[in-house]
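> forwarded from #structure-qc
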């Protein structure tokens, strides 16, 4: 009996060591800084259709990989709302200084569903003094700088969904899907369970077969209900329990989609400073160009902006920059169906990749050489 117990204990200890070593190796792997990882990832995954990269440099189509492939945008779609906000502010349709009660934003806040974005924004707001309201422009800033989904949902109501969905068309974006209330969409599984008394398995089947028109309409209905009847804290807690990995994947896959071709075209418009009126840029630049708040960036950049997005399965980013030598760069990168390791490594190395592209001519040449063979017949020319 003692020998058997010793053997079991030995097995448990050995298993524990294997797990500990595995965790250590995983952490070491994802902590490595290697901008080249982005290049090799695009090469390896280009055939799957789950990665897309478009780069313009000084008006040259530098890299075009799967640029017409529609992929879910995650929070990168918030650029569209920022543009509509700036246009309405410039036209005098909204007042950027109008005060918004933080309580109104809580109607659309589901804790632990946005990577802590909204909470981090609130903490930053209250670091010097206790406040209960902020100007509308700060709500927009929270959407872009901190990626608050609650702020995004609130701004859908302020700006108008129809107006927001007109932006891609007005910018000649050919493959941009309609925006809808993405926080409210999180509640669709719970609503189906409650209203139709369905099991998780049954709800998954219903949602997999639900077309996007019905899905968006359900999200809009929930959004409208929350304006006057938001979820209680207990209901929000229960919702978080419902949103397991299977439901998160469906939600992630159904986020608005577009192409890197479309988003590079937006980046070029923001970068030019001439496409929109001067008054639009006056409201748009402070929101989009968070990068320029770092004094180190001001030493070598004239202007630059970016917005990224992610879920457990997605990583996206769109950025633009003009340096003090006059070089202009516009980049959009979208990836979907990522493993945890891929997601972690992409997140860890994306900033280094962008920075090296902007600063290192040899790296730019290397990228062109490595990825030009992946250009598809339907790509930009």
């Amino acid at each position: 009996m003692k020998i058997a117990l010793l053997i079991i204990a030995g097995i448990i200890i050995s298993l524990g060591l294997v797990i500990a070593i595995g965790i250590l190796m995983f952490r070491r792997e994802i902590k490595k800084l290697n901008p080249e990882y982005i290049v090799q990832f695009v090469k390896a995954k280009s055939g799957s259709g789950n990665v897309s990269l478009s780069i313009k440099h000084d008006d040259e189509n530098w890299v075009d990989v799967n640029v017409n492939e529609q992929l879910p945008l995650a929070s990168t779609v918030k650029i569209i709302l920022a543009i509509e906000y700036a246009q309405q502010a410039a036209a005098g349709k909204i007042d950027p200084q109008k005060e918004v009660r933080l309580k109104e934003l809580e109607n659309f806040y589901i804790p632990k569903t946005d990577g802590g974005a909204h909470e981090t924004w609130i903490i930053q707001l209250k670091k010097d003094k206790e406040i209960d309201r902020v100007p509308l422009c700060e709500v927009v800033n929270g959407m872009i700088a901190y990626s608050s989904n609650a702020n995004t949902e609130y701004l859908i109501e302020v700006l108008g969904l129809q107006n927001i969905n007109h932006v891609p068309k007005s910018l000649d974006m050919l493959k941009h899907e309609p925006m809808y209330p993405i926080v409210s969409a999180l509640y669709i599984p719970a609503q189906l369970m409650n209203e139709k008394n369905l099991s998780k398995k049954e709800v998954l089947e219903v949602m997999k077969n639900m077309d996007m028109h019905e899905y968006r309409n359900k999200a809009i209905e929930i959004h409208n209900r929350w304006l006057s009847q938001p979820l209680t804290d207990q209901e929000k807690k229960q919702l978080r329990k419902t949103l397991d990995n299977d439901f998160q994947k469906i939600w992630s896959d159904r986020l608005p989609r577009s192409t890197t071709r479309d988003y590079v075209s937006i980046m070029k418009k923001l970068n030019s400073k001439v496409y929109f009126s001067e008054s639009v840029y006056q409201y748009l630049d402070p929101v989009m160009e968070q990068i320029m708040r770092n004094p180190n960036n001001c030493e070598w950049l004239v202007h630059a902006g970016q917005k990224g997005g992610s879920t457990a399965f997605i990583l996206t980013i769109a950025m633009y920059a003009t340096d003090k030598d006059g070089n202009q760069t516009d980049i959009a990168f979208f990836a979907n169906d990522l493993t945890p390791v891929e997601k972690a490594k992409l997140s860890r190395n994306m900033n280094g990749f962008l920075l090296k592209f902007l600063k290192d001519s040899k790296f730019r040449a290397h990228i062109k050489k490595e990825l030009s063979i992946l250009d598809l017949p339907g790509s930009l020319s």
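QC bot note: The beta strands are 51-57, 60-65, 71-72, 99-101, 133-135, 257-258, 301-310, 315-323, 328-335. The mean pLDDT is 92.
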